């Protein structure tokens, strides 16, 4: 084969190869056009779907609005049927908050309110102050960690109201669980109540939940402890409690604390009164003190210094306890409340000097006669409140008649207001004694140091005295307030 023939054959092969490539390119272009057409159709479908989705979203918002309007309309119509639906959200919240005032161990008012209806649940979940933690450790709750975590999530950083009821002894394994949970609970507490059932046996602080009070409590403003005798020299409690203003202790000894912000202490059902020097060291700015004892409470001597220089309100359950205060121990006292004064043969108990005392409240009719001999020592008093749930008519009449005697009617020369609260006995048996005293008081002539004469104000609060009998008192009283 000549060179010309070879070149012609090679050219034919190249042309055939080129034709095959042209055909392959045409096929690829055809497939591309097909896929482009499919993509364009898909894009148009996607755009239609997106537009449909937007329209559906608009329809959904509109429908939700209509549903809410319909629910509001149903609630509005229900208001005419059920009075509870007429209450505003603010008033409902106040009612819910009122449920938190009691110490019903294990009660969960927030959960109860949130389970009534949709409106109440929405209101409860949007009110962090409504949620509290109530732990009854006697039942050894199995899901205590989850419960605490859930309450924390619903309350944010809000200080919590916490109630804990503890058995006398806690099992070691359960205490390990509490070691992982209660520290966070205690540090979040704003109002904390810990009650331990007392089995009258000695226990170390480290074996009880009171050990957690050694933690910082930056939000705590009120603390109530019950059922544990804190031993002298044990670890100091409340090491960092800058906001604590109120401390209450019942059925146990007073804990060793030192809180500069503390201005109110309540000691309830105490076996003996603590040293006033300890109270002053615990709360140097103490303004309000309540002390109630067991009948066999011992009164021990006071150590110096025993003055409570800022105390303004004092509630006691006996003149004998008041007489045990040092002479100058109550320089700022303005209000005195007495309960259940025990009878004594010696009625001339000396009282401390109380130069700013202006108000005295006597509870229970037995207090009234018992306190009469002490009136001469508190001549600066201007307001006397006589309060009792049940009035013994014979004791009340005897009180008024004895006070009407010449040597006693002059006891409170600056008296300007007598309030009688809660009398529910027969009024006809009580009024004659009142009239005798008020007439005797009005008959006294005024002098340079006293303000005898008609009583400026007689307040009758929640009494059974009918209004028409007030006419019998008008000659001896300038003004009568009937509440």
What does this molecule look like?
- This protein is α/β, with parallel strands linked by helices and about 475 residues long.
- Among the domains are: about 35-85; about 360-483, no CATH class.
- The chain contains 12 helices and 14 strands.
- The chain has a 14-stranded parallel sheet.
- Strand 12, helix 12 and strand 13 (about 455-460) form a beta-alpha-beta unit.
- Helix 9 runs parallel beside helix 10 (about 395-405) and helix 10 (about 395-405) runs parallel beside helix 12.
- The chain is elongated, with a radius of gyration of 40 Å.
- The termini are far apart.
- Mean pLDDT is about 80; it is low at about 425-430 and about 445-450.
Keywords:
single chain, about 475 residues, alpha/beta, 14-stranded parallel sheet, about 35% helix, elongated
Provide a brief overview of the structure.
It contains twelve helices and 14 strands. It has helices at 3-79, 89-99, 109-114, 118-125, 144-155, 172-187, 276-282, 319-323, 365-371, 393-403, 406-409, 427-443; strands spanning 132-136, 160-166, 189-196, 222-226, 246-250, 264-272, 288-298, 313-316, 335-338, 359-363, 383-387, 417-421, 457-461, 480-482.
Approximate helicity band: 25-40%
Distance between the termini: 140 Å
Largest sheet: 14 strands, parallel
Q: Give, in order, the helices and strands.
A: HHHHEHEHEEEEHEEHEEHEHHEHEE
Instruction: Count helical runs.
Output: 12
Mean pLDDT: 79
- Give the strand order of the largest sheet, numbering strands 1, 2, ... along the chain: 1-2-3-4-5-6-7-8-9-10-11-12-13-14
Q: Please identify the structural class as seen in this structure.
A: alpha/beta
Overall geometry comes to: elongated
Relative strand content: 15-25%
Radius of gyration: 40 Å
**Using DSSP, what is the number of strands?**
14
